[in-house]
UniProtKB/TrEMBL annotation:
Residues 15-133 form the 6-phosphogluconate dehydrogenase NADP-binding domain. The lineage of its organism: Eukaryota, Fungi, Dikarya, Ascomycota, Pezizomycotina. Gene3D superfamilies: N-(1-d-carboxylethyl)-l-norvaline Dehydrogenase, domain 2, NAD(P)-binding Rossmann-like Domain. This is 6-phosphogluconate dehydrogenase C-terminal domain-like protein. Residues 153-185, 237-264 are annotated as: Disordered. SUPFAM superfamilies: 6-phosphogluconate dehydrogenase C-terminal domain-like (SSF48179), NAD(P)-binding Rossmann-fold domains (SSF51735). Residues 158-182 have a biased composition (Low complexity).
Length: 417
C-alpha cells in the first residue's frame, strides 16, 4: 500500500504520474493525494527545489521513466513550454523500451500534455507518438489539455486585507498600500481560481480535447476515470460545429446531441489556454510597462492614487499579477511566443508582421527575466518585487542599466566613425 494518500488505511484509487513537480505539478499532486490517489514522478536530473517539492507533497520518487510508465496508467506533462516536446519524447523512448522487453504494458497509457503551447505545437507533439509507431488502441493515447487558473490550494484564514491570492508554498501575502492616500484598496473576489466551500479547496479548471477522454466510459479502460476527472476538474471540450457545414438549426442540434461525446480535436484545449492566458498575461505586460514608465517619469504615486480612486479593482488585479510574476517571467517568454503562433495561425488570419502583439509581449517578459534582478526570483524563496514600490525600483534599475549600455554602444559607434 502506498503511504502517500491522505486517507490512512486505504488503498489508493490509482497511481498518477506527474512530470514535473513544479509549483503547479506539486499542487495538483496534493489535490490528487487528498482525494485518495497515489502520485509518482521521476525527478532524475531535476533541481533540488523540484525534489523537495515532490517530497513535501508526498509523491513517490521513481528513478526512471520506465518505472513511471509501468506503474501509472495516466501521466500528466506539466513542464515549461520549451520542454514539452522533449518530455513527450522521453515518454516515447521509455515506452518503446518497455514494449520490447519481457514485461510490456497490457493496456494503453494515457499521456496528457497540459502545457501552455500553441495548437500547432501540440499537434506536432501528438504526431511524435504516431511517428514512433505507437498505436493508440494498444500503446499510448494522447490527450491535449491545459490548465486555466492558478495553483490549487487549501482555504486559508484571511483578514479583510486584500491578498495576492493563494499559493501552494504558503499563506497569501498582503498587498501593500498603493499610495499615501488614506482610502484603502477595495477587496475583490480572487480571479483565476474556483472555490469549493465543502472541501475547502480552491482549484483551476483543466479542459481537455481530442479523441480520448478520461470520462468516456466506452474507451477509458480504468475504473476511476470520472472520479479522477472530477477531482482535477477536468472538462472534455466539445467542438463548435463548422459554420460552413450545416444550417443554424442543425448546428444547435449537433452541439446539444454531442455534449457528452469526445468530439473535439487535438489542439483545441491548447487554443483555449492561449486565448485565456493572453488576457491575463497581456494585462500583466501592459501593467509592467505602465508602472515602469510612471516610475521613470516620477509620476508613480499620482498614477497609483488615480487607480486607487477611479479603478480600485484594476489596481487590485494589476498588483496581484505583477508582484507574483517575477519567478515565472522566464517561462512566460515562450508562452507568449506560443500565443503569438496561435493568433497568427493561417486559420485565424492576424498578420504576423503588422499585428503580432504577443511577439513584443514576450520581449517584456524577456527583459524582466534577463535584464533585472527580478529574473533571479524563485517560487517560495522571494526577495524582490513583493510590493509595487520594490518591483518598480527593480524595473527602473534594469531600464537604467539598459540606457547606460546603449549610451556606451552609441559612443563606440561614434568612435569607429
Amino acid at each position: 500500500m502506498s503511504a502517500n494518500t491522505e486517507a490512512e488505511g486505504q488503498e489508493p484509487r490509482a497511481k498518477i504520474g506527474i512530470v514535473s513537480m513544479g509549483d503547479m505539478g506539486s499542487a495538483l499532486a496534493s489535490l490528487l493525494i487528498a482525494n485518495g490517489y497515489a502520485v509518482a514522478t521521476n525527478c532524475t536530473g531535476r533541481s533540488q527545489d523540484t525534489i523537495d517539492r515532490a517530497v513535501a507533497v508526498g509523491a513517490e520518487l521513481l528513478s526512471t521513466d520506465e518505472a513511471l510508465i509501468t506503474q501509472c496508467d495516466v501521466i500528466l506533462s506539466i513542464v515549461p513550454p520549451a520542454q514539452a516536446a522533449a518530455t513527450a519524447e522521453r515518454i516515447i523512448t521509455a515506452f518503446k523500451r518497455i514494449s520490447s522487453g519481457p514485461n510490456p504494458r497490457c493496456t494503453p497509457l494515457y499521456f496528457a500534455d497540459m502545457n501552455a503551447i500553441s495548437p500547432s505545437t501540440v499537434k506536432s507533439i501528438a504526431a511524435q507518438f504516431a511517428t514512433a509507431g505507437l498505436d493508440p488502441d494498444r500503446d499510448v493515447r494522447f490527450v491535449d489539455g491545459c490548465i486555466l487558473g492558478v495553483t490549487p490550494s487549501r482555504k486559508q484564514q484571511t483578514s479583510s486585507t486584500t491578498t495576492l491570492g493563494p499559493s501552494s508554498t504558503g499563506p497569501a501575502a498582503p498587498i501593500p498600500a498603493a499610495s499615501t492616500s488614506t482610502k484603502p484598496v477595495a477587496s475583490f473576489p480572487q480571479e483565476d481560481i474556483l472555490h469549493d466551500p465543502i472541501t475547502g479547496w480552491s482549484y483551476p479548471l483543466l479542459p481537455t480535447s481530442g479523441p480520448w477522454s478520461f470520462t468516456d466510459e466506452t474507451t477509458f479502460p480504468y475504473p476511476y476515470g470520472n472520479h479522477f476527472a472530477s477531482t482535477l476538474h477536468i472538462e472534455h471540450m466539445v467542438s463548435d460545429p463548422d459554420p460552413n457545414s450545416s444550417s443554424g438549426a442543425e448546428k444547435q442540434q449537433t452541439t446539444s446531441s454531442s455534449s457528452s461525446s469526445s468530439s473535439s480535436e487535438i489542439g483545441q484545449a491548447s487554443a483555449l489556454k492561449n486565448v485565456y492566458a493572453s488576457l491575463a498575461k497581456g494585462f500583466a505586460a501592459l501593467s509592467l510597462l505602465s508602472l515602469s514608465t510612471a516610475h521613470s517619469l516620477r509620476i508613480l504615486p499620482s498614477f497609483l492614487s488615480s487607480l486607487e480612486r477611479l479603478a480600485p479593482s484594476r489596481l487590485n488585479t494589476m498588483t496581484r499579477y505583477v508582484t507574483t510574476l517575477p519567478p515565472k517571467a522566464y517561462r512566460w517568454v515562450r508562452e507568449m511566443e506560443e500565443i503569438s503562433k496561435t493568433f497568427t495561425d493561417e486559420e485565424v488570419g492576424w498578420d504576423e508582421d503588422k499585428e503580432d502583439v504577443f511577439k513584443h509581449v514576450a520581449g517584456v517578459f524577456r527583459f524582466v527575466a534577463d535584464e533585472t534582478v527580478l529574473g533571479q526570483e524563485k517560487v517560495g524563496k522571494r526577495k524582490r518585487g513583493l510590493d509595487l514600490e520594490d518591483l518598480c525600483q527593480a524595473m527602473g534599475e534594469g531600464l537604467e542599466g539598459r540606457r547606460k549600455r546603449r549610451a556606451v554602444e552609441k559612443e563606440g559607434e561614434g568612435g569607429e566613425k
